[in-house]
Amino acid sequence: xxxxxxxxxxxxxxxxxxxxxxxxxxxxxxxxxxxxxxxxxxxxxxxxxxxxxxxxxxxxxxxxxxxxxxxxxxxxxxxxxxxxxxxxxxxxxxxxxxxxxxxxxxxxxxxxxxxxxxxxxxxxxxxxxxxxxxxxxxxxxxxxxxxxxxxx
Length: 152
Ligand SMILES: [Cu+2]
Known about the structure:
Blueprint: H1 2-23, E1 33-41, E2 49-57, E3 63-69, E4 73-84, E5 87-92, E6 96-98, E7 102-106, E8 111-118, E9 126-132, E10 137-145
Parallel strand pairs: 1-10
Antiparallel strand pairs: 1-2, 2-7, 2-8, 3-6, 3-9, 4-5, 4-8, 9-10
The structure holds copper (II) ion.
């Protein structure tokens, strides 16, 4: 009787530890972010290019994007277009948050990827790595378009 009780206790504590392990936050949580409709618009090779994309978070926690890097840009930064004193302007943003089960658009007039010193060629896709808070990364393929929309 005593022995059975001890066995039960051992089993209970084993299950308790298992539950703790399962519920403990992972050192690197599974990436729940996906990227779609990603493209850079190249006006002139000598001018910074802007990149746009749709970020979709299928997770239940916000996903924080802290930066982006690509060989297609001398430097790539997260920017936001704003109106300052009635003039179009833009500011660098240190991070953006994609809401749980939601999307965040990088679109003309709002968030964009500022591609400083572009090394882009219209018609040639380029890969970019999107860095997430917590160490996660997502690689996305950006199309490169010119000033005219691509033919349908
Ligand atoms: Cu910008």
